[in-house]
Amino acid sequence: MNTENKKKNNEKYLQDIFYMKKTIKIAKNGIYTTHPNPNVGCIIVLNGKIVGTGWHKKKGGPHAEVYAIKMAGKLAKNSTAYISLEPCIHHGETPPCCHLIVKSGIKRVVIAAIDPNPKVFGKGIKYLKKSGIDVSIGILAQESEKINYGFFKRMVSGIPWIQVKIAISLDGKIAMNNGESKWITGEQARHDVHKFRAKNSAILSTSNTILQDNPKLTVRYTDKIKNRNLYHIKFSPIKIILDSKNRIQPIHNIIHKTTDPVWLIRLNKDHNIWPKHVKQIIIQKYNNSIDLKKLLIFLGKKKINTLWVECGANLFSNMLNLGLIDELIIYIAPKMLGHTAKSLFLDYKNIKLKKTPTLKIKKTIKIGSDIRITLEPSYKWKK
Questions:
Q1: Looking at the annotation, which residues are catalytic?
Q2: Taking every pair of C-alpha atoms in the chain, what is the biggest distance, in angstroms?
Q3: pLDDT tens profile 162-198
Q4: CA angle (302 as vertex; 301, 306 as ends), nearest 5
Q5: How many helices (H) and strands (E) does the chain have?
Q6: Which residues of the chain form beta strands (DSSP E)?
Q7: What is the dihedral of CA 359, 361, 362, 367, to 10 degrees?
Q8: How far is CA 69 from the centre of its chain?
Q9: Euclidean distance between the first and final Cα of the chain, in Å?
Q10: For residue 248, which of 284, 217, 272 has the smallest C-alpha distance?
């Protein structure tokens, strides 16, 4: 390859990077609304000018390519399309985007990541190539996967991406000895939690937490959540409550003060009359409790991409020991609760220091008067 060709290829590569960055930024507009679908963006470029843009807004709605091609109109012919995820080839709730791309006259398609969905997985790329379209793959693939971590994990492993949130004091306590925990962290940290709630497919908690705090586990402060395109947040995460002893009743706030879907995970059903938004779901037991691994497999089959966990020491310790946590989000408040307060992690017995769980710090940020640390456990369970 001569010097001139190398220069042209390098310029083309840099141009692809430039437009794909914009494409992924557009894809992020759907971060609160696309569940269980992935976040996808599309930009159409003709002669160095953007002539069409689009992003997937919600399940059942048009895909990113549809919006972009519609905006481009006749200018789509002989253009280059930048798409953050391989376009679909199968008939789902919408027609295949690959057919529309070919029909529009687009001559080149640049794709960030291959769709892990077995219904797509390379088939869209193969169809485009057979149709005479020049296809480039892998431009900013990791960035595309990053904004769809839950979708990719569920498609590959069959279980959701799991984030566990804990609020603690400087001395590692999650509540006073009498159970009082409102509020360890400040108002800004609590608002920050609602952003995470809004981004997730479901929220997991326990009957202990419901009995102690009687929360609604709703997404609030939506006026403070900056959705990049100001698209109205209509999605409400499913509330999933571990209730092996059937202690949750219709009188609790999570039941009678919201109409959001609530799944009570139990070993046996009770005979209460429940509202339509409440379901009792039976999961097999393990050691006289709900089998968490079987629950995660069930949630994966129900298209739960991401699971936000708000719980106490028991569930947190069990999940960490079983390697079920993908990310641990800890809010640390500048307070000391004392040795009689409740600890974050249940004590090990007869274990050496080198065998205790190790976590990797991924990110640290100050939220108001508190600190939020994002950590990654050193090992994870695989289905």
A1: 65
A2: 78
A3: 999 999 888 888 877 776 677 888 889 988 998 899 8
A4: 100
A5: 11, 18
A6: 41-46, 49-55, 80-85, 108-113, 134-137, 161-169, 173-175, 202-206, 238-242, 262-266, 278-282, 285-286, 289-290, 306-310, 327-333, 342-343, 359-367, 370-377
A7: 120
A8: 28
A9: 47
A10: 272
Looking up tokens 């699971």, which residue turns up?
A: 307
Angle, alpha carbons 39-21-119 (nearest 5°): 35
Q: By C-alpha distance, which of 377, 366, 372, 266 is closest to 322?
A: 377
Give me the residue label for tokens 């999933």.
Answer: 240
- The percent of the chain in helix, strand and coil, each rounded to the nearest 5, is 30, 25, 45
Pair of tokens at residue 81: 């399309």
Residue with tokens 């963006």: 41
pLDDT per residue over 222-260, tens digit each?
A: 555 554 443 445 568 999 999 999 999 999 999 988 888
CA angle 359–364–365, rounded 5-degree value: 155
Give per-residue burial for 68-87: e unless 16+ CB within 10 Å, then b.
bbebbeebbeebbbbbbbbb
Beta-bridged to residue 288, according to DSSP, are none
Task: Read off the pTM.
Answer: 0.87
**Is the CB of residue 318 less than 8 Å from the CB of residue 345?**
no
